[in-house]
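pasting for ref
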Amino acid sequence: MGARSIPSLNNGRGDIMKEIVKEVGSMKKSFLVSLIISIVLFLILSPVLFQLMVYLHPVGLGVILFCLVLAVFFIVLLIRKQTLHLPYSKIRILLVLYSIALFILLFFRPNDQIYQSINLVPFSTISFYLSGEANGLVSFYNLAANIALFIPFGIFLKMKQRSIFQLVYIPILFISLLELLQYFTLRGSLDIDDFILNLLGFFIGYLEYPLFSKIFKI
């Protein structure tokens, strides 16, 4: 009886291994497709992106490409109904690397640009960008980037059980420190509208987390 169960057990293990190999192969295919699509989109957008390099550190291109690959990969996994298991420790490493890139993007600007203006009137800068008086590309980038660049932090905060109070005060404290640091280092203006847009990015991350958790299993 025991001897007969051994082949059956081996067959079961073999089937599991086949499923794992199949899943890994399918995931690699999804990532490769995502990478190709992202590179094509990046090349299409490159004339526009290189215009922004007058205002940004070259690492900005890397941040944009990274976000593009991640967004496309997420969409591909969603379409193919695949899930990816990511240990929390690896997500923290990715967030640290992303934070370093964001720090460089915010504090290291080309041509040693200096900013030291203050705006404490809510929505005045946003209204100016939407009015059409400023360069359209610069306006779009400032509005979109101030939101999008902080979405990953919102998603990360939702990965652990936190109170409503924590989900509100952590972003407020983080963004406030960032704004003050930019102002005192002459690398950015102290603008209430930047604060509002950054905070919106965090909250969008909170809203996106349920969809994120369907694809990426922690």
